[in-house]
Amino acid sequence: MTSGMTSRSHTVVDSPYGPLTLVATDGVLSGLYMAGQRHRPPQESFGEADARPFDGVIDQLDEYFAGGRTEFDVPLRLHGTPFQRGVWEQLLAIPYGETRSYGQLAGALGKSGASRAVGLANGRNPVGIIVPCHRVIGSTGGLTGYGGGLDRKQRLLVFEGAASTLGAAPAGTITRAGVAGTLF
């Protein structure tokens, strides 16, 4: 391989939410896609099948799905526009068991009128679950779009204990394990 070229590899692992395709670019996690996910790149772009780059990721996913992990500590290589990467950084700051609205994320980025743009960037998140785009809800506390499907989003939020107040939380609140509180 000549210098400047990137190598990509992938593996597929089972999860309570169906098979997950993990993708690495130069040995660093750059994709985690659910079966049937919207904006999923074509399979042929994932590179050769090779599970070696994913041992730590798989271990942490197993711990998460077993209820023993609330944060991930794996290197990520996120490819996107500067705005998308800013949104994804905000997603990483949402703690386990909590939610944020698209408007709250836009405000945290200093772009209070950019809720739709935040939603579009959220939908393009290439590393689902680990970059927790499922923790973003509508301003009224209701479920809104999710690339992996609303059923999976709801199941993930229930699993994390953040779903008990969906639809009941006033705008500007967060939820953690069913307890509503103000954001700041």
Number of strands: 8
The whole-angstrom Rg is 16 Å
Task: Let me know the largest β-sheet.
Answer: 4 strands, mixed
Strand composition percent: 15-25%
Could you report the average pLDDT, rounded to the nearest whole number?
A: 85
First-last Cα distance: 50 Å
What series of H and E elements makes up the topology? EEEEHHEHHEHEE
Structural class: alpha/beta
**Number of H- or I-type helical stretches:** 5
How would you sum up the global shape? globular
Portion of residues within helices: 25-40%
Q: Give the strand order of the largest sheet, numbering strands 1, 2, ... along the chain.
A: 3-2-1-4
**Poorly predicted segments:** 168-184
GO molecular function, one term: methyltransferase activity
InterPro entries: MethylDNA_cys_MeTrfase_AS, MethylDNA_cys_MeTrfase_DNA-bd, MethylDNA_cys_MeTrfase_DNAb, MethylG_MeTrfase_N, MGMT, MGMT_N_sf, WH-like_DNA-bd_sf
Active site: 133
Subcellular location: Cytoplasm
